Amino acid sequence: MKVPFYCMRPRVLSGVQPSGNLHIGNYLGALKNWARIQYDYESFFCIVDLHAITVYQDPGELRAKIRETAGVFIAAGIDPKHSAVFVQSSVPGHVELSWMLTCVTPVGWLERMTQYKDKAAKQESVGDGLLQYPVLMAADILLYQAALVPVGEDQAQHLELTRDIAQRFNSLYGETFVMPATGLPAVGARVMGLDDPTRKMSKSETGAGHAVALLDPPAVIRKKIMRATTDSNPAVNVANAGPGVLNLLGIHQAFTGWGDEAMKAHFEGMRYGDLKKEVAEAVATGLEPLQRRYREITSEPGYLDGILRESAERANAVANTTVRTVKERMGLYAAP
Ligand code: TRP
């Protein structure tokens, strides 16, 4: 449903780490969907560089990846005329609100977070930022009074914590924050790793044959898909296909939009080599417009910086209003 522009639209916000290498799983499970729903909301898409530095980042690489992520968002159809595409650290309210929320968050809530436990277990010395990570994320969301937060399943616990923090703040200081709903992607939008189709395609997985990155050239796309794991059947047997073959079929369907009947009629009995060729073709063709737009966006001097600046201004206007309200509620000095 499209809401006319003169109505107050609910807000949607999501955040993505600038870890680079956004892949077809991110596109089909998140970006494509955000591009579709953006006009139904007042939309904010945040590149969370402050979250990224909870583990060490090479400064030069981080700088480049922030720009790449912003460029890919826009190339994937996020419309910067309508939606704010901005970098977290250019809106000081994120850090300000984060501190205020830290002060109402029991440390036990943070120590229970599974993502924290996983990351902390891998490190000898655990930075405080890693523990605070979910509070900063709560601030990202509550700062904009977002009604909906589209995220992957792995972020559901962080969203629950965000609601707990909001509730606690509201009960201590009076109704202040909107309760954000978690928007999980549709089941069909889940893309699995090419090398291991039992695990979700992931940005942190570094194996060369794991994911097709959105900016991979067609030759690389082909090479990765030709090496994808299938099953021990001699050819496509839709009723008895293993997860690798279902994943390839799912990817093809997502890029072409073919219906189930057409898929089955076309692929049933096809040898895996031919299936892979067709999937690679569908992905390369499907990504071509995105890649073209990315090249246009990044070759026009100042274009991306202009968008990031303008979006940050819009985000700051909303953020400052919330920070001011929170300061007033807590009794902090809010200059008249
Ligand atoms: N933690 C999220 C992730 O790793 C990223 C994130 C940070 C986020 N702030 C957010 C997601 C706010 C949604 C809303 O995927």
Key features of this structure:
binds tryptophan; 3-stranded parallel sheet; mainly alpha; Rossmann fold; Tyrosyl-Transfer RNA Synthetase; single chain; 336 residues; 13 helices; 2 domains; two-stranded parallel sheet
Describe it.
The chain has 336 residues and is mainly alpha-helical. It contains 13 helices and 5 strands. Helix 1 links the parallel strand 1 and strand 2. Helix 4 packs across helix 7 and helix 4 packs parallel to helix 13. It is globular. Bound molecules: tryptophan. The site of tryptophan has 13 residues, from strand 1 and helix 7.
Kindly summarize this structure in a few lines.
Strands 1-2-3 form a three-stranded parallel sheet, with helices on both faces. A two-stranded parallel ribbon has the order 4-5. It is mainly α and 336 residues long. The chain is built from 13 helices and five strands.
**β-strand number:** 5
**Unreliable segments of 5+ consecutive residues:** 1-6
CATH homologous superfamily label of the largest domain: HUPs
Average pLDDT score: 94
Strand arrangement within the widest β-sheet reads 1-2-3
Q: Give the CATH class of the largest domain.
A: Alpha Beta
CATH architecture of the largest domain: 3-Layer(aba) Sandwich
Domains counted in the coordinates: how many? Answer: 2
Protein structure class: mainly alpha
Largest sheet, described in full? 3 strands, parallel
From the alpha carbons, calculate the radius of gyration and give it in angstroms: 21 Å
Helical region count? Answer: 13
How much of the sequence lies in strands comes to 5-15%
Topology as H/E string? EHEHHEHHHHEHEHHHHH
Shape designation: globular
Helix proportion: 40-55%
